């Protein structure tokens, strides 16, 4: 899509591919962008910055691909330097870093597992030492594994992995970041439509995403007097490597079909929400969640 196409008036349900999606082989978790037959739009050719995050220092977890890559591109084009935290997808991280650097900003890649408290501390320490401070934390990294059988098929090992990745890391990173943040800093958490409309096969994942909504509200009240704002974005079905890496083929072929707009969203369609919540334009908003769900009510 050209920048001109993105900004002209058009039917939102027809702006990107609609199900059935192109045939796609299942891929091993966490998946890479190169393995997707239909490449997601991260805003590489379309996102236009206007200096809304000029000289901010940002840490984005899960920043190598998908939603994280779109956030990193948008932040850089708005003037921010970015630390990209990711598990082990080095090629995806390198490509995202190049896109940040093409925008004239600094990118720092830090691989590791956010399930480890020591690594979460390292991420904040690295952001401070490499960028000179931390003004924005985006808790975006997440793990899900679709089990159609529901609770009967969710093992303790899987439940523990989902909790550690989605909630423990959120707690550790926020705690360490708040200790370093100055007034005007922001935290933006990635929750999900699953927080409001849980699928039985994603019971563990949905539980963590609901927890993120409450954590966001509670932390926002806790740090308001320090001048730090905390908000969240709730994506609906978004096309990223995580989908074919965690869903059976017959499920993701129709991925996004049931939302009112009739298609999955693209990472580029989420980035503006993160920019808004990270910028001074949202200075009177804290403890809130912006739903980007293709029309599914977040209630």
Task: Characterize the structure shown.
The protein is α/β, with parallel strands linked by helices. It has one domain (56-292): Rossmann fold, CATH 3.40.50.720. It is built from nine helices and seven strands. The protein has helices at 3-7, 66-77, 90-102, 117-131, 156-178, 203-223, 242-246, 249-252, 271-278, and strands at 57-61, 81-86, 107-111, 136-139, 186-190, 229-235, 289-292. It has a seven-stranded parallel beta sheet with strand order 3-2-1-4-5-6-7, with helices on both faces. Strand 1, helix 2 (66-77) and strand 2 (81-86) form a beta-alpha-beta unit. Helix 2 runs parallel beside helix 3, helix 2 packs across helix 9 (271-278) and helix 5 runs parallel beside helix 6. The longest helix has 23 residues, at 156-178. The protein is globular. The protein starts with a helix and ends in a 7-residue tail after the last strand. The mean pLDDT is 94.
List keywords for this structure.
single chain; 299 residues; alpha/beta; Rossmann fold; 7-stranded parallel β-sheet; globular
Could you say how many structural domains there are in total?
A: 1
Largest sheet report? 7 strands, parallel
Query: Gap between N and C termini, in Å?
Result: 33 Å
Class of secondary structure makeup: alpha/beta
Order of strands in the sheet with the most strands?
3-2-1-4-5-6-7
What is the CATH level 1 assignment?
Answer: Alpha Beta
User: Could you state the CATH homologous superfamily?
Assistant: NAD(P)-binding Rossmann-like Domain
Number of strands: 7
Sketch the topology as an H/E string, one letter per element. Answer: HEHEHEHEHEHEHHHE
Overall radius of gyration: 18 Å
* Number of DSSP helical runs: 9
Return the CATH topology.
Rossmann fold
């Amino acid at each position: 899509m050209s920048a001109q196409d993105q900004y002209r008036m058009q039917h939102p349900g027809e702006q990107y591919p609609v199900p059935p999606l192109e045939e796609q082989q299942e891929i091993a978790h966490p998946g890479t962008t190169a393995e997707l037959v239909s490449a997601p739009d991260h805003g590489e050719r379309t996102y236009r910055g206007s200096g809304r995050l000029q000289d901010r220092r940002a840490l984005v977890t899960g920043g190598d691909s998908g939603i994280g890559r779109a956030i990193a591109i948008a932040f850089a084009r708005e003037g921010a330097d970015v630390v990209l935290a990711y598990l082990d997808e080095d090629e995806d991280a390198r490509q995202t870093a190049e896109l940040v650097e093409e925008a004239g900003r600094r990118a720092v890649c830090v691989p590791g597992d956010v399930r480890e408290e020591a690594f979460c501390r390292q991420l904040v320490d690295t952001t401070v030492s490499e960028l000179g401070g931390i003004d924005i934390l985006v808790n975006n990294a997440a793990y899900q594994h679709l089990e159609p059988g529901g609770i009967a098929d969710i093992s303790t090992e899987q439940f523990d992995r989902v909790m550690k990745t989605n909630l423990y890391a959120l707690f550790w990173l926020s705690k360490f970041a708040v200790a370093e943040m100055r007034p005007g800093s922001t935290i933006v958490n990635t929750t999900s439509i699953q927080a409001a409309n849980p699928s039985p096969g994603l019971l563990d994942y949905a539980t963590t995403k609901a927890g993120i909504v409450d954590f966001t509200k509670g932390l926002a009240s806790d740090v308001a007097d320090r001048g730090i704002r905390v908000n969240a974005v709730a994506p609906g079905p978004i096309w990223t490597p995580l989908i074919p890496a965690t869903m059976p083929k017959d499920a993701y072929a129709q991925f996004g079909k049931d939302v009112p707009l009739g298609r999955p969203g693209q990472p580029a369609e989420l980035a503006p929400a993160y920019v808004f919540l990270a910028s001074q334009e949202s200075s009177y908003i804290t403890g809130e969640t912006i739903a980007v769900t293709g029309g599914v009510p977040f209630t």
